Structures are given as C-alpha cells and as structure tokens.
Amino acid sequence: MLRECVGDWVVFYEGRAGLNGYTHVQKVAGVRPDPKRPDHFYADLDPAEMLQFERRVSRLRPDGTPYEQRLPPSGGLNASAVRRLTPREFSAIVSEGLHELPDIDAHPRSGPLFDLEEDQSAFTIDRTKVLTSRTLRDAAFSRMVRRAYGGRCAISGLSIRNGGGRAEVQAAHIRPVAHGGPDVVRNGLALSGTLHWMFDRGLIAIAEDHAIMVSHNKVDIATVDRLLHPSRRLMLPKDPRDHPHPEYLRYHREEVYGHA
Predict the structure, then answer these.
(1) DSSP characters for 117-150?
(2) What is the pLDDT at residue 5?
(3) What is the tally of helices (H) and strands (E) in the chain?
(4) Over 50: is that where the pLDDT of 230 sits?
(5) Picking from 91-100, 158-167, 219-228, 234-243, which range would have the lowest pLDDT averaged per residue?
(6) Backbone angles phi, psi at 102, to 5 degrees
(7) How many Å separate Cα 216 from the centre of its chain?
(8) φ and ψ at 173, to 5 degrees?
(9) How far apart are CA 139 and CA 162, in angstroms?
(10) Residues whose CB falls within 8 Å of the CB of residue 233, separated by 6 or more in sequence, listed in order
(11) In 9-126, which residue ranges form alpha helices assigned H by DSSP?
(12) Which residue has the higher pLDDT, 181 or 42?
C-alpha cells in the first residue's frame, strides 16, 4: 500500500490523548524496506512538501460520522498505521484542515480557502494545484505563525499595529523554503519587517538556548540596541508545541547565518 503513495500526499493523524485529529499533509518521496524486518517498510517523506493544517481536524464530522467511512465511530481500524483514503475522504479532511481561520486581528472570512460542497458527487481536489500553491501555503503559514506569536515580534518583543489596528508582524521561515523548509509553525518566527529581512540574510540567528546571535561585523551596536529586546532572547509562543524546532534553528545557524 505504501508504494502506491510514492509521489503523492498522505494525511497524518495524531492519536495522543486529548489531541486526537488529522494534523498535516506531506508528500511521500520513496519507500524502502527495513533491513532487519523483511515485512516492514519505511516511507521517506519530502520535508519541503509538509503543510500543517490551520485547524486540527477531528476524526468525526460535526454530525458524528467519521471522515473515514470505514472507521466505526468508537474506533477499530483507526489503530492501523497506514490506511487508504478515498478521494472524497482526502478532500474532506484537507478542506477542513485548510479552512481559512481569521487572522489574529481580522474579521472572519466568508469561506474556506477553496470552495468544496460536501453534497457534490465528484468531491475531489486537484492535489498538485492546491497543495503546491505557493500563494495558498504562504498565506496559511503566515496566519498560523502570526497567531502562534500573538502578533508580537519574537526578537524585538514589540506588537506594532497599523492605522487599522492590524499587526504589522510578518511570518519568517527559519529553514528557508528554497532550502527545503516546510510550512509548519515550528519552522516559523513572527518578526517585524526589518528583523525579517535581517534574519533571512543571515545577519541574526537564534542560539540553541534561544539567545539572539548578531553578526557584529555587519550590524552595528546602535542598531542592535534599537531593534532587539533588552533580554537578547527569543520571545516564545505560549504553546510549547509552537516553539521553534531545534533542528530548523540549527540549520539556519549553520547554513544561513553569516553567509550573506
């Protein structure tokens, strides 16, 4: 069954207590056998094609029926490591997961990111078009990161609003998209425009202990004093699940920082 998924996206389900739900999609790059157990296989996932859902999707629809029709409401096949989804089931889960949530300070939008009616007979989406759309992915990533950080810059600590009350903070990828960075909150930082520019160009970075690193041969002390929070440490999201992943921070330090 896994070999059928190579080159296509799969939906991931998290079954931890209190956190049950479909969480993201990711493309399968290949399948390889377990060298020690001939009846087991590993799926190699493309990290650049990981897309986090804006909302965790419950196993059950609002009417109490499972998104996966083969699953009984009380459990059963949901324990299987790999399960087939029909195009209709895949579309329903992804549509709900990518349903556009309002930005942290914006009025709710009128509908989902893409319009799908559940009573349509051909309930499918063009996976290539939807899941590789840079416009869709960037917009969803920005909303999720801004929401996780509460509209506050993670390096300056400032929450700047424009005349309309909208937060001016931007969402920066820690591991750049051009380097295979995924669109997940843990690969993001909410930064002001200037700090976003500096971070992307390797003028600043985040240490393992979340201290702010500055390339002082390129950035003068006066600028640092104006832009950085006095603690010189990253302002983290309230939810630990949204904290930057250490591996993405390490990649930025080693492959981006100081390379400009």
Answers:
(1) -TT-SS----HHHHHT-HHHHHHHHHHHHHHHTT
(2) 79
(3) 6, 8
(4) yes
(5) 158-167
(6) -65, 145
(7) 31
(8) -75, 135
(9) 19
(10) 210, 211, 212
(11) 87-97
(12) 181
Task: Give the angle subtended at the CA of 141 by the CAs of 84 and 88, to the nearest 5°.
Answer: 25
pLDDT greater than 70 at residue 125: no
DSSP tag of 188: E
Q: Which amino acid is it at 136? A: L
Write 192-198 long-range contacts (CB < 8 A, 24+): 192/153, 192/155, 192/156, 192/158, 192/160, 192/168, 192/227, 193/168, 194/227, 195/153, 195/155, 195/156, 195/227, 196/170, 196/172, 198/227
DSSP single-letter state for residue 108: P
Hey, what are 233's tokens? 């440490």
Please write the tens of the pLDDT for every residue from 16-27. Answer: 766 789 999 999
CB atoms within 10 A of CB 118: 10
CA dist 10 and 16 (Å) reads: 19
Beta strands in the chain (DSSP E): 9-14, 21-33, 41-45, 51-57, 170-173, 188-191, 204-206, 212-214
pLDDT score recorded for residue 20? 81
